[in-house]
Amino acid sequence: MNSQECRPLTFECFQKHIRTNYYERDAERGIPSTFLWLIEEIGELATAINTRTPYRDPENLREEFSDVIAWVFTLANLCDIDLAAAIQKKYLTGVGPVGWK
Q1: pLDDT tens digits, residue range 4-28?
Q2: Comparing C-alpha atoms, which of 86, 58, 91, 52 is closest to residue 72?
Q3: H or E, element range at 93
């Protein structure tokens, strides 16, 4: 799957891209280790966000946000979760999430 096949980008297309290109390696690593990779990327995003404003690097922020999203999609694939359907059901059905986040 190439980048032109995901224009415009959708959740479904990105999840399929991640599965097509990385699933075999991700499955070998397993869910617990993959989750640790996600946590590491969240830490890198936290560091990028917490950098003081004149020194904050927008390109680094874009990369770290993208990495976090990619690892979330990776875990969803390993757990056999369709993220588009899950998000649609939880956030776009008119009910919305219950409670405070």
Answers
A1: 677 889 999 999 999 999 999 999 9
A2: 86
A3: none
Please provide the DSSP assignment of 14-60 as one string: HHHHHHHHHHHHHHHH-HHHHHHHHHHHHHHHHHHHHS-GGG--HHH
Render the burial of 16-34: b for 16+ CB within 10 Å, e for the rest: bbbbeebeeebeebeeeeb
Structure tokens at 90: 């939880």
Q: At what angle do helices 58-78 and 31-50 cross, to 10 degrees?
A: 160
Residue type, 22: Y
Q: Give the chain's mean pLDDT.
A: 91
Residue 77 exposed, middle or buried by CB count within 10 Å (0-12, 13-18, 19+): buried
Burial class from Cβ neighbours inside 10 Å (0-12, 13-18, 19+) for residue 37 reads middle
Structure tokens at 35: 């989750």
